[in-house]
Write a structure and sequence with these properties.
The structure is a single chain. The chain has a single domain, classed as Trna Endonuclease, Chain: A, domain 1 (3-Layer(aba) Sandwich). About 15% of the residues are buried. The strands form 2 sheets. A 3-stranded mixed beta sheet has the order 1-2-3. Strands 4-5-6 form a 3-stranded mixed beta sheet. It has 5 helices and 6 strands, in the order H-H-E-E-E-H-E-H-E-E-H. The chain is an alpha/beta fold.
Length: about 160
Amino acid sequence: MIRTKPSRISKLISEMDKTDKNLKKERHNKYIPDKKRKQISVHSAKAKGRDLQQYVCKKISDLTGFPWGSSGTDAPIESRPMGQKGPDVRMESHVRKLFPYSVECKRQESWSVPAWIEQAKQNQAAGTDWLLVVKRSREDPIVIMDSERFFELLHRLQHAERGPF
């Protein structure tokens, strides 16, 4: 049997206790609700939302061929400033003819899809359908739209590919 000094044993026990406490803390933090975790700053949250809006503007620009810009650039497709009323992507009428959707963008970790759909419907411009683009950190954006419009769009696409007989 090996004998060690009492001080060394007490140090080992102390280290084991610290390790055990850290493990318990890590396990506990995993179950803390999102609201109690550290929140990002308002500035960072708005910047992430703006990035998603600009991503959507670029995609619409790629589809329609019209240029896009940030708010105030007088481009046919613009990202609306945070907090302003209306769709998150502002489009001039000639762009809306090619892309007939009122776009609402949400870049959040916790999702409230029914409330967002309601907001998209309220901000829907005349002659357009609502379209919701949502994204979480480290995930690709997802598009949510009315199911009837989706199937109508697929139907038109299939008939366009077949061509008239």
